[in-house]
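Students often ask why inverse folding is considered easier than folding. One informal answer: many sequences map to the same fold, so there is more than one right answer. In these notes we will look at a single instance of the problem. The structure comes first.
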């Protein structure tokens, strides 16, 4: 009851300015996959290798049981 009362009392309005989704998505992609000063390619690859090692380890542990 409390949650429905809170949601009914709120008025949702559209934002005054719409963000350019293409530009923001493009900048996120460029930052994640660039090797420059603001690039995150090396940490992205390090995390992906770590996650792959965790998945392989979990599969090996599950297979032994």
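Output (designed amino acids):
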């Amino acid at each position: 009851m409390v949650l429905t009362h809170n949601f009914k009392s709120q008025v949702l309005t559209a934002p005054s300015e719409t963000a350019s989704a293409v530009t923001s998505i493009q900048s996120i992609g460029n930052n994640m996959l660039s090797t420059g000063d603001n690039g995150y390619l090396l940490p992205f690859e390090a995390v992906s290798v770590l996650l792959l090692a965790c998945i392989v380890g979990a599969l090996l542990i599950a297979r032994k049981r």
